[in-house]
Specification:
The protein contains 4 helices and 5 strands, in the order E-E-H-E-H-E-H-E-H. The protein has 165 residues and is α/β, with parallel strands linked by helices. A hairpin with a 7-residue loop joins strand 1 and strand 2.
Length: 165
């Protein structure tokens, strides 16, 4: 993972990690997000447009930074366009905490992007989905259970979880 940190814009600091923030680079990402401990920025933008892969270790660091910023009356906003990052945020239930911003300027102004198109690796060519829930499918003939919230199988479906006693 490489790091680029441009000069702050007013009271907003922007960081631009590149490469693959994962378990092995999480400490470097944490240091990048924290910045100068003497004067940490409460308003932070993480421009992830140069990130090619990200795992939950990076999400942990982003969420920790968000909580720190909110405690100081600030925020952390993510700029990205990669479907894989949007999918990771949806699958972990973090899309509400981290809405997508198309550009750094949009993030500064608080204008989130509408939706990030996601195409499943198994989806037919040209199929794109603008999902809002944790599970969705680009296949028009996908079974109905694919559209249920994670962790709650349909009642009556074979293999459904038993009801608690």
């Amino acid at each position: 993972m490489s790091i680029r940190c441009p000069a702050p814009q007013g009271k907003v600091r922007t960081v631009r990690p590149a490469g693959e923030p994962d378990l092995s680079t999480a400490p470097a990402l944490r240091d990048l997000l924290r910045g100068d401990e003497a004067a940490p920025a409460a308003r932070l933008i993480a421009d992830l447009t140069a990130v090619s892969f990200m795992d939950t270790s990076a999400l942990t660091e982003l969420e920790t930074s968000l909580v720190r910023g909110e405690a100081d009356g600030g925020w952390l906003r993510l700029v990205y366009h990669q479907p894989a990052i949007g999918r990771l945020l949806r699958l972990t239930g973090l899309t509400r905490r981290f809405p997508c911003y198309a550009t750094v300027q949009d993030a500064c102004a608080g204008r989130p992007a509408r939706a990030v198109a996601v195409r499943s690796a198994a989806a037919p060519a040209g199929a794109a989905v603008h999902g809002t829930g944790p599970l969705h499918s680009a296949w028009p003939h996908a079974p109905a259970w694919r559209h249920e919230p994670a962790g709650r199988p349909a009642a009556g479906r074979q293999g459904a979880w038993p009801k608690p006693a």
